[in-house]
Amino acid sequence: MASDGSEEFRLVSPSIAKEGRMPRQYTDEGQGAKKNISPPLEWYNLPKGTKTLAIVVEDIDAPDPDGPIVPWTHWVVVNIPATVKGLPEGFSGKEEMGGEYAGIKEGNNDLKQPGWCCPKMPTHGHRLQFKLYALDDELHLGNKVTKEKTLDAIEGHVLGEATLMATF
After folding, report:
1. Which of 22, 81, 83, 88 could serve as 168's disulfide partner, Cβ 3.0–4.6 Å?
2. Based on C-alpha coordinates, what's the Rg of the chain?
3. InterPro entries recorded for this chain (predicted)?
4. What CA–CA distance (Å, rounded) separates 104 from 52?
């Protein structure tokens, strides 16, 4: 329960087990791996006043070859209408999705390409952080959406955050 007595704003994936293991089908490694398929996501109990949502997915344990740990961006999704209750498996890269998904925009991952960049790690034990932001407005980021532009634009507009962690 949240401090106001309401149910907590939550982000979940029906495919990520309670222990947080990222299934191989959403990675680029091992038997069962699919080709760059984004996992399904669901969210519950949006904060009052939410107009749109944004998602940023990062490997928060990614090492920089020259030194410290620098998060690696796997996926950025913006302008998800508050009426949408989740993203289906394989949502990423499907340009033809219309209806309630029509205004959603995928941003560039750290490969400088729009859409989901499935994990392929040099070592295991990395944590993938899925962060969902409930926003009081739509984002206007131009043609090239990035994590940095998204995080700058949402400043002062975040009504709530929900996080899902998965290990790989």
Report:
1. 22
2. 16
3. PEBP (IPR008914), PEBP-like_sf (IPR036610), YbhB_YbcL/LppC-like (IPR005247)
4. 10
In sequence order, what DSSP letters do the residues of 134-161 get, joined into one string? EESS-----S---HHHHHHHHTTTEEEE
Domain assignment present for residue 5? The answer is no
SS (H, E, C) 88-117: CCCCCCCCCCCHHHCCCEECECCCCCECCC
Q: What is residue 26's three-state secondary structure?
A: helix
Lowest mean pLDDT among 61-75, 124-138, 154-168: 61-75
Strand, helix or coil for residue 128: strand
- Whether 17 and 39 have beta carbons less than 8 Å apart is answered as no
Range(s) of the domain holding residue 118: 10-167
Token pair belonging to 71: 């998060």
Residue 71 lies in a domain: yes
Question: Which pTM does this prediction carry?
Answer: 0.89
Total domain count, the chain: 1
b/e burial code for range 42-65 (CB count within 10 A of at least 16 → b): ebeebbeebbbbbbbbbbebbeee
Counting residues of the chain whose pLDDT is more than 70, the rounded percentage is 86
Tokens of 157: 């507009």
